[in-house]
Amino acid sequence: MGAIVQGSYDGSNDSVTDILNRLGRYADLIEPWAESVSKRLIDTLEIADNAVWRERSYQISSGMRELMSGSQGQVARSIVEEQVKLFKSLPLHAADRVYDIHNQAIETVVAGRRSSSLVDEIMRTGEVTEARARTIARTEVGRASTAITQARAVAIGSRGYIWRTAEDSDVRNSHQQMEGKYVEWGKPPTLDGMTGHAGQFPNCRCYCEPVF
Q: Are 108 and 195 within one domain?
């Protein structure tokens, strides 16, 4: 472009017009080149971006491997073991329930009373077991999440957390009173006769906000 201007301008209006025409044609001439350069730039950015994502993915994967192999892995394995025990307890509790209700039915018959209501209760065992399974599932998700959060937070220096609730009408009063309070990891509170951190109580939707 400098060469076009320097080789064409002589101070006259005609030379200016000629320069404008030449530069206009040059702009059309370099359009394919401009598109090619632009595409290479975008491709380079995409490659760099993909490289960043691959690195981040590797870091996440490495973190998960560390989670399952170090002290945090012990927490995770402990959670799995506890959950296996709970799920295995479902049929055992169902059997105990049937046995207890059956004995009540026998006592009722011996006493000369109708036992139809107790028979109905036995037939509801599946429904009761399903409800208990749902409670276990909801509770265990919270317990696992809290335990892993605690293990990771403590590993990098956290001494406690802020208790957070779901902030809706279903939050238990005792848990609502904990909203915003600081809790030390080593001193879980006792609420409604049970001891644990946020998210570790039956059907609890509260969570820990680690403090560093």
A: yes
Domain total of the chain: 2
Strand 207-211, strand 160-164: pairing: antiparallel
- Same structural domain, 92 and 168: yes
Same domain, 60 and 159: no
Q: pLDDT tens digits, the chain, 212 residues: what are they? A: 777 777 777 777 777 888 888 788 788 888 877 777 666 666 666 676 677 777 777 777 776 666 556 655 676 667 666 666 666 666 777 777 777 776 776 666 666 655 566 667 767 777 887 887 777 777 777 887 888 888 888 888 999 999 999 999 999 999 999 999 999 999 999 999 999 999 989 889 999 999 99
Domain check: are 12 and 107 in the same one? no
Residue 97 sits in which domain range?
70-211
pTM for the predicted model, two decimal places: 0.52
